Amino acid sequence: MAQLDSLADASEIAHYEEALARYLDLELDAERFTALRLQQGVYGQRQEGVNMVRIKLPGGRLDPARLAAIAEVAEKYVPQQVAHITTRQDVQLHHVPLAETGAVLRRLAEDGVTTREACGNTIRNITTCPLAGVCPREHTDVTKHLDGAVAHFLRNPLNQQMPRKFKVSFSGCEADCAQGLIHDLGIVATRRGDKTGFTVLAGGGLGHKPHEAITVAEFIEEQDLLPAMEAVITLHNKYSDRSKRAKSRIKFLVDRFGEAGFIERFNEEFARTKAALAGKAAPRGEWRAAARGPVPGPGAPRVFFAQKQTGLHVVPVAAPLGQLKSAQLGGLAALLGEYGLDDVRTTQDQNLIVLNVPAAQISSLTARLAELGLKTPQAGDNVVACPGSSTCRLGITASMHVAPKLSGGRHDLRIRVSGCHNGCAQPESGDIGIYGEGKRQHGKLIPHYQMYFGGDGTSACGSIALKGPSIPAARIEQAILRVQKAYDEECVEGERFFGWAQRQGVERFQSLLADLSQVSRFELAKLARDHGDATDFRVVSLGGGECASATDVAIGRAFFDAAHERAYREAFTFQRKYEDAAACAEAQLKLVGEGLAGFLGGGKAKELADIVAVLRGLTFPQELAERLNGFVSSLSGIGLTEEEATKRVFADIDRWIAEVAVFCQARDPQLDLRGALPAVPAAARKIELAAA
Question: Which pairs count as long-range contacts for 339-342, CB under 8 Å and 24+ apart, including other chains?
Fold first, then answer.
């Protein structure tokens, strides 16, 4: 494996630790600190005083040093000394004391590991085919494109204050093992004759109102990958609902605009991003003629897998429910170092795979893994679970207690268990998926699991699962066994559960499980407890998930959006497209001006002249208002003036934005604009609050 790039930034960790100290000293508002904490991948738990730290691993890629770093922090800072692999190929550490989170981030950063933007309303960890680079079927190793996307979007101003989180996947061929169908944005490598490029999917998602992604571009060339991705992300940032967070995922934009309308807006935005990013180097891969071979499908291979590199194999390692002890992680790191293996990856089915294992080493490696308590996957254990009510603020049922009781049986069905409807275990993409909910029966709250059947997140031939009945939690094992028995008896030879379930239809599952979904008054007592509970079930209200409820600071968003426009302005200036650059500069001023008017309690205005009129009537340094007014005529002449004069206008705009930021931060000292402001000379004028 090529050397993994460091994604860590020591200065931002120092910034986080400073804010943490201020928060603990009651000098920083809880809402503002929460936003910064989420940006650094530190998420609140049900339990007070402790947090989940989510480690961002693009494509799930690890090496022995990074494994050892995770093992060390799990041993030192996690009371249970356990790490949890997620369906997004992250690793999570639970029960970390808040005061220790800075130390965790610093230790991980020593080996180049980041938690930046693993939580919050950002582009989350980008998932990839776990076999990228070794699968015989792939057109190209998409890790090259993954790395380019991560470098472009991590810490990008566009990505800091979006309406809601945004999930991306990369697949190396049309089999789409990274499940683009259920992602906000799916990138699938493909061919069109002799040309190589990508299919772009958008608008997929699970949780509230599952939605299959649509194809927004059948084919784009490799050089247009980043502009196409940025176009979709920009649509989300511009148009998704910021007032109703439950409806702020991009899948709702597809419904709002209609498929044709969404694609039309994508094409408009794509034309602009393609022009703005024309001078940016595009990530390039090595393309090859794909070979025939087995399709691993969603997740990763569960058996030894022959790589396209002759004589080398992938060895899968089971991590039951994604849980691994720190001693196992540390032991695995040492073992890989001993064998000279440096490529290990987390998978969407919460397991690990070790790559590039010579055939002669497989037997001894698996024997040594067994000494660490690590086995290869076995038929029936393809069970994925989120933490549920054990730690998650949104969790309703104890998914981690019921999941060990479930099995995919001899057909090794994919069982997916979520503790609430948000679906972090991806239940709508499993053969059998369930999510927890509370239902009132005869006046008493009973834990239930909503069932799904026949899901597959791959865009090539998959679909979101059929919605079945809701079954009391105490009967869910019986319900799953009954469905497995029906499949075993009725499937035709070679028929996947997916095909059988889709052939059955919703009505069949409703009738098959009808008796198990019914609850009589006399059964309430034995159905009232969730798995693992000693008392009757109840739903604890903890105020919802932090990402969805995080306060959107409008003036902060204005500065970040203006920073994005500044990047485009500079790109167009470099290309000598001065009229396009002027349009971006005007957009900067409108964004900051409109945000400023709202920040000061003024009326709404969209055009610069109207914004100036509003600011003239507010408690605001009038010299700044008049300079804004002066930019109206300055920008109108762009393209007719000399190059140096144009650049001077843009430099003046940057100084104005920087001075407005000083004014805003004087009014609101907790306003965090790190990463949003232009670099201006130190001599730029400071506008103090008193000047107002």
Answer: 339/365, 341/64, 342/1, 342/63, 342/64
In whole angstroms, what is the distance from residue 630 CA to residue 30 CA?
39
Output the CA torsion sign for 600, 601, 606, 609: negative
- β-pair partners for 195: 192
3-state secondary structure of 589: helix
Q: Supply the pLDDT for residue 689.
A: 39
3-state secondary structure 612-655: HHHHHCCCCCHHHHHHHHHHHHHHHCCCCCCHHHHHHHHHHHHH
DSSP letters, 67-89, are HHHHHHHHHHH-TT-EEEE-TTS
d(CA 504, CA 572): 56
> CB 373: neighbour CB atoms within 10 A?
11
How far, in Å, CA of 207 to CA of 418, rounded?
A: 10
The pTM of the full predicted model, rounded to 2 decimals, is: 0.95
Q: Across-strand partners of 352?
A: 317, 346
Please tell me the number of Cα atoms within 13 Å of 261 on its side-chain side: 8
Q: How confident is the model at residue 633 (pLDDT cuts 50, 70, 90)?
A: confident
DSSP assignment of 660-675: HHHHHHHH-TT---TT
Across the chain, what does the average pLDDT equal? 94
- Closest Cα partner for 414 from 400, 399, 428, 432? 432
Residue among 443, 442, 388, 387 at smallest CA distance from 420: 388
Q: Which helix (H) or strand (E) holds 436?
A: strand 432-441
What pLDDT digit, counting tens, does each position of 237-262 carry? Answer: 999 999 888 899 999 999 999 999 99
Q: What is the mean pLDDT of residues 574-584?
A: 92
The tens digit of pLDDT for each residue in 449-460 reads 999 999 999 998
CA 134 to chain centre: 24
**Closest among 537, 477, 488 to 513, alpha carbons compared:** 477
What the block records as the tokens of 547 is: 């990402």
Is the pLDDT at 113 greater than 80, yes or no? yes
Give the type of residue at 298.
Answer: P
Cα–Cα distance list, 626 to 407, 618, 623 (Å): 70, 13, 5
Q: Can you give the pLDDT at residue 684?
A: 46
Q: Is the dihedral of CA 224, 229, 231, 234 positive or negative?
A: negative
In angstroms, rounded to a whole number, what is the distance separating the alpha carbons of residues 662 and 597? Answer: 15
CA separation for the pair 170, 463 (Å, rounded): 18
Residue pair 204/212 in contact (Cβ under 8 Å)? The answer is: yes
Q: Residue 548: its pLDDT value, please?
A: 56
Residue 691: the pLDDT is 41
CB-based contact 227:266 (threshold 8 Å):
no
* Cβ atoms of residues 411 and 484 within 8 Å: yes
Per-residue pLDDT reduced to its tens digit, 591-609:
999 999 999 999 999 899 9
What CA–CA distance (Å, rounded) separates 115 from 54?
Answer: 6
